[in-house]
Amino acid sequence: MYRYFPNADALLIASSMRAVNGFIDQVAEHVRGINDPVTAVVECVSFGVENLTGDPQLESLLTSRPEGEAVTSLTSDTAIAFCLSVFHRLDVDWRLHGFDTTALDELAEMTLRTVQSLLTDPGQRQRDEIALRQFVARWLGPAILYRRMTSLAIYERHASLDAHNEERHVISDDPR
Question: Which H or E run includes 143?
Fold first, then answer.
């Protein structure tokens, strides 16, 4: 087994993910036709949290560990690979929105961290469907939009102008 999985956590996550492979199909079906990355990811997270909350096997996997051992992380390479497989099934043109491979990997990690947090500690305030989507969109949405903003030519031009002006300011302060 350890030839295929680096550790027990990776094996547990792979086993759990395999068990929920049908669930991943449900998520992809739920967001079919949505091509806006913020809306698609918010819907994926919200749908996942709504449908996985209270699942005893998943809760046990994410919260129960023997004394001194770390809690199983949803940010393992295996979990990120599954999240990326969902992202690639979405009707989102990730390149158009500024996502290269590294940025999409990071979005998968942040998405999984959000899901894990909402599943293991939903907070004192219970959120209905709308409030959950608003909460996720408010905090995860700007991270998704950031990639698009930084990929725009106008942003690059302003960034280079800012760097040029800063350099000119430093040179003008030179007493020589």
Answer: helix 129-151
**Which domain, by its residues, includes 66?**
8-151
Count the helix, strand and coil residues of the chain and give each as a percent rounded to the nearest 5.
Answer: 70, 0, 30
Q: For residues 145 and 38, is the Cβ–Cβ distance under 8 A?
A: yes
Amino acid at 4: Y
Query: Is 162 within a domain?
Result: no
Taking CA 120 as the corner, what is the angle to CA 88 and CA 127, rounded to the nearest 5 degrees?
Answer: 85
pTM (whole model) above 0.85: no
171 domain-assigned: no
Q: What is the total count of domains within the chain?
A: 1
Q: What is the pLDDT of residues 39-90, one digit of tens each?
A: 999 999 999 899 888 776 666 666 656 666 666 667 778 788 889 989 999 9
CA 108 distance to own-chain centroid: 4
Residue type, 66: P
Alpha-carbon span 137 to 150, nearest angstrom:
19
User: Does 152 or 54 have the greater pLDDT score?
Assistant: 54
Strands in 16-151 per DSSP E = none
Give the tokens for residue 17.
Answer: 């993910």
